[in-house]
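Dear Dr. H.,

I hope your travels went smoothly. While you were away I took the liberty of generating a structure for the chain from your last submission, since the lab meeting agenda had it listed for discussion. I wanted you to have the full record in hand beforehand rather than looking at slides cold. The sequence, exactly as received, is reproduced here:
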Amino acid sequence: MSDTCVSRKLTAVFYADVAGYSRLTGADEEGTHRRVMDSLDFVTKTIKAEGGNVLRYAGDAVLAEFASVVAAITASYIIQIRLHSENLDIPDDRKVLIRIGVNLGDVMEDRGEIFGDGVNLAARLESTAAPGGVCISSAVFEQIDGKVEMAFVDGGSELFKNILKPVHIYRWHPDNMRALFDTPVSPSVAASMPVEKPRNTDRREKPSIVVLPFANMSGDSEQEYFSDGITEDIITDLSKVSGLFIIARNTAFTYKGQNVDLSKVSQELGVRYILEGSVRKIGNRVRITAQLIDGFTNGHLWAERYDRDLEDIFSVQDEVTDQIVTGLRVHVSDSERQRMVKKDTENLEAYDDVLHGRELFLRFTPEGNRAAEESFRKAIAKDPNYAAAYAEIARILVQRRNHGWDDTPDETLEEGFRMVSKSIEIDDTIAQPHIVKGFVHLWRHEHDLALKELDAGLAIDPNHADGHMWKAIVAGFAGIPEVGVREVQLAMKLNPGSPFWYLFALGNACFAMGSYRDCVNACRQAIEKNPNFIFAQMLVAAGLGQLGHLDGADTALAECRRLNPHFSLDWSKALIPYKNVETIDRFVEGLHKAGLSKSA
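The corresponding predicted structure, in token form, is as follows:
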């Protein structure tokens, strides 16, 4: 009779296994073995670093336990981010992908091992995870909810072999937040991401929604800006509701003109609800159709058609947003409702000018910049109290100044400051002017004031993706890059199809941390999206200079000179708004090592 003492305990069970191991070894036995062993070594090190205990290996599988559920999920996150990064340049048939299952359960402990249904379920969860992803039980989700920054998707209930009752599961995969995780980051930077939850990011409690670009049915391509503007205004109104999680405009517009599978959109963005519609503008009449769809079931929650005079366009927007929040049973505070129904102008011609100007601004060219400014100034001439138009002019002026499209950059920046201050003086209840003033303060090297304005804007509009992105940039320049990483992560959740400046925000935070390779990786991806973005080119040159990779640095410097003939060490040092002298010195040193001279 055995005298072994069997005890029981509650523990976080971690189970990882290599996906498709047999297939990989059939194609390249020795190479696969080497890559798998390297991956499992990293898995083991990460488990131990996060306080876990590896209990046993079974070929290409690992069983471990953690005293903390958060620690188990953090380890899972770091492992999958690192492996995802390493797999970016590897052919699909050679990628080592690991599935991870995590369960919180009561287990038997005997001779240093654990047994029982709690362990079996972790293995079953691993088997249902996507390659490269993580699957967890509802018991785990309840413990981590609000404590880590991973957007788990509700997978419903599953019945597993040898498990008596159905189990509610949640899944996560790097592709759910593709823009952030397509950027290779080191384990040290990745480890800083699953940190304390920023406010208003509890996606389990919030209905999540994307507003797809309304189709232009006017038969006139020149009216495209109008249907786009209607879409953007509905997004803006909904984003003011703290009880909603709404995908930002930039990501929503990546689906423009496509015949999309709505369930696929829901899966790609990690949102449940989808609003789609169309706009037909003929003369002084407008017809708007809209329908709200449950992306999980493809069921229609409601559909409506609005035939109105053009002067009623604002009331139609109000009706659409009101039906959404009512249909989703979202609580809207009195102040949020007031902000939703409040319009910046009642002048339709001025509103039309602003819609034109926004479309021109997004071209990011000197010509588009000048034409956009002209359009915004027309709007102000028609409505001198149009607060949003003043803020848009400020944005135009800062863009012109920062891209070297102006011969009087100091005067241009000050005019931008006057314009955005005028906007807030007219109406301080709009988020965008506070966001714009925040980044104007940044270029004036007023970091504390910049953060204060950004926080004011985000308090008004907690779903303002660009606001979180600008806070990330300011934090990187202000010497608190860890906050920058956290804020850009949140921005990328709200805007998964993140534009180039989001990647720059991540790269800038990495540079401030001294993570030069991560900085270069992020900024190079920003450059792929916009080769004319000089700040990303500058950080690539400085980062490569610090790494001693001078061939690549030469190319980045040549691009900087192409973009701005005044580009020099003195010009760069005067422009870049790092608060800490040490960071400025590292930036200038990197450019100098790359081969940049003191003056143009």
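Two observations you may find useful: Confidence is low (pLDDT under 50) at residues 177-184, 191-204. The first strand starts at residue 7 and ends at 18.

With kind regards,
E. W.
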